[in-house]
């Protein structure tokens, strides 16, 4: 029913926001710890002017003012499997799934933009090409949830926002459907086509 689906979406976005909050805090903690390191801990990187503003620091200065120019990035895999779990189709299979996929990734990007404004650091969203992680997570989830068709029934989760490689689709259509996700993933993104 519609009310059950609406409740499912509210729960999904609540759980997603909790995970995003956790990862933002982890990134801030890592930035704080790394920022307390001193220039003398990185003599080559700081001494060669590789990092912006490193030339302004002395050897005993902390490096937070240099690291702030970098990015604090959240990545994701498995949009296709997420959509399948939520509505029974991935974004290559229906316009409804595509719109929900864009809403999910758009929400994640919005959260990164909000963190950028709040903390005055460069938060970004990356479409992760996590080859090892994709297989590791699937094994873990298969032990917990069993083998679920279109979700945990393969040896890997689909990278980032990609339409699954096993799904039969014209190359042009795959590129067209994945295209809007590139604008949402300011930390990095890629599309590819597998051909016979």
Describe what this molecule looks like in 3D.
By secondary structure, the protein is mainly alpha-helical. Helices cover 53% and strands 6% of the residues. The protein is built from seven helices and two strands; from the N terminus they run αααβααβαα. The protein has helices at residues 2-35, 43-47, 64-67, 79-87, 95-119, 131-145, 171-182, and strands at 71-76, 122-127. Strands 1-2 form a two-stranded parallel sheet. Helix 1 packs parallel to helix 5 (95-119). It is elongated. The N and C termini lie far apart (41 Å). The model has no long low-confidence stretch (mean pLDDT 93).
What attributes characterize this protein structure?
single chain; 196 residues; mainly alpha; two-stranded parallel sheet; 7 helices; 2 strands; 6% strand; elongated
